Each structure stands twice: as structure tokens, then as C-alpha cells.
# Entry
Amino acid sequence: MKRQARPPLRRGQSLVIDTEGRRRLTRSQKVGVAGVATLAGVALIGVVAGLLLDRLLDFDDALDAGGEWDEGGGVFTRWQ
# Structure
């Protein structure tokens, strides 16, 4: 039986094939996917934390300077 000649591999290409005939990811590809998943997870946690803080805290009261700055001038509130 004659073996079929394979074309030469391009640089960075992998020929690790699993039992179902699919090409498996290389180590650097797995690291890249894991990095993207980690960034997406951290971003999602940040969005959820921001929404919770926005709902739980009333930032208008937290940022209020207490009314007038110069005690009798023309500026009557800091945040409008």
C-alpha cells in the first residue's frame, strides 16, 4: 500500500487530529482562547458590580457638597 504524500505544513499550522477527525487547538491557541474568556469574564463582573452599585447607592447625595460654596453668593448648589 502506497502512502499519500502530504503537502508541507505552513509555519504555525498543527496536524494534531483527534479521533473524530477534527484538528485540535495548539497550546498557544488554547492560551489565547483562555485569555479572551478571562477578559470577558472580568468585564462582565465589572458591569454587574457597576449596576449593583448604581442601584444600591444614591450618588447624588454622596457627591453633594452641601449647598452653597461661598455662603451667600450666586452659586446655590454644586450639582444641578
Summary: Helices lie at 27-56, 59-62. Residues 64 and 79 are 7 Å apart (CA to CA). The chain has a mean pLDDT of 75.
